[in-house]
Amino acid sequence: MTSSQDRPHFFYTAPPGACPYLPSRTERKILVDLATPEANFLHSRLSHAGFRRSHTLAYAPICDGCSACIPIRLPVACFKPDRTQKRTIRRNADLTRSVIPPIATDEQYALFRRYLDSRHSDGEMAGMSMHDYRIMVEETPVDTRIVEFRAPDSTLMAASLIDVLEDGLSAVYSFYSTETPQRSLGSFAILSLLELTAQMKLPYLYLGYWVPGSPKMAYKERFQPAEILRNGAWQKLNPNQPPCIERPLPFPEGPLF
């Protein structure tokens, strides 16, 4: 008898669209439907191959003539915060972290809305309503959770949507208060997720795509050591040596399962 993990999973391509990271470029994605009985298994394998999740789909870029989006992850056991990151941890020592089920709340959406209006008012997510936010959080076939960060007076300061993988945590999306820039809450969220990953005894924190040349994604290279996916293998990122950019394969190189 053939197990469900031996059944084929079909890949689809999305229509081309504007690149959200590099101006004047066109984006194209390959998609996989995760809404299957083995969703967590499939999601873990695809994440290891450089895919990301949005709602019930896993996706990866297959842009013509461009492979600027490079999968990046942090090996938790090797991470050591630098001087700036240590200050960020100290400045946010008063915040409490809680991991809760993926249920959207009005309080989360209010913070999410302020974050978008402040940082991404011209982005593709700028028009998201409470209904859209609820779908982003709750429409998931995998092990998804929300990490909330609260001030001593219980004010919600930041939140991260995460997926639990076989070999780590995947940071799907984070948003935070931009009214206290001295806290560096975006960086603190990643630092706290690194700690959470270690506490869960998982080896990696997946951060999505690092895009050299994109100011939006430059922050990811500040977390060292990091690993990037090149030619089908995870390799240590040398931030002082630009990675070789080659045209991506239309499908992940090597077996997924």
Automatic annotation (TrEMBL):
Family matches, as Pfam families: ATE_C (PF04377), ATE_N (PF04376)
Keywords linked to the UniProt accession: Acyltransferase, Cytoplasm, Transferase
Domain N-end rule aminoacyl transferase C-terminal residue range list: 107-229
InterPro entries attached to this UniProt entry: Acyl_CoA_acyltransferase, Asp_Glu_LeuTrfase, N-end_Aminoacyl_Trfase, N-end_Aminoacyl_Trfase_C, N-end_Aminoacyl_Trfase_N
GO molecular function terms listed in the Swiss-Prot or TrEMBL record: arginyl-tRNA--protein transferase activity; leucyl-tRNA--protein transferase activity
GO cellular component: cytoplasm
Reactions this protein catalyses: N-terminal L-aspartyl-[protein] + L-leucyl-tRNA(Leu) = N-terminal L-leucyl-L-aspartyl-[protein] + tRNA(Leu) + H(+); N-terminal L-glutamyl-[protein] + L-leucyl-tRNA(Leu) = N-terminal L-leucyl-L-glutamyl-[protein] + tRNA(Leu) + H(+)
Domain spans labelled N-end aminoacyl transferase N-terminal: 18-87
Record EC number: 2.3.2.29
Chief location bin: cytoplasm
SUPFAM superfamilies, sorted: Acyl-CoA N-acyltransferases (Nat)
Record function comment: Functions in the N-end rule pathway of protein degradation where it conjugates Leu from its aminoacyl-tRNA to the N-termini of proteins containing an N-terminal aspartate or glutamate.
Family per similarity comment: Belongs to the R-transferase family. Bpt subfamily.
The name this protein goes by in its record: Aspartate/glutamate leucyltransferase
Organism expressing this protein natively: Acetobacter pomorum
Source organism phylogeny: Bacteria, Pseudomonadati, Pseudomonadota, Alphaproteobacteria, Acetobacterales
Gene, per the UniProt record: bpt
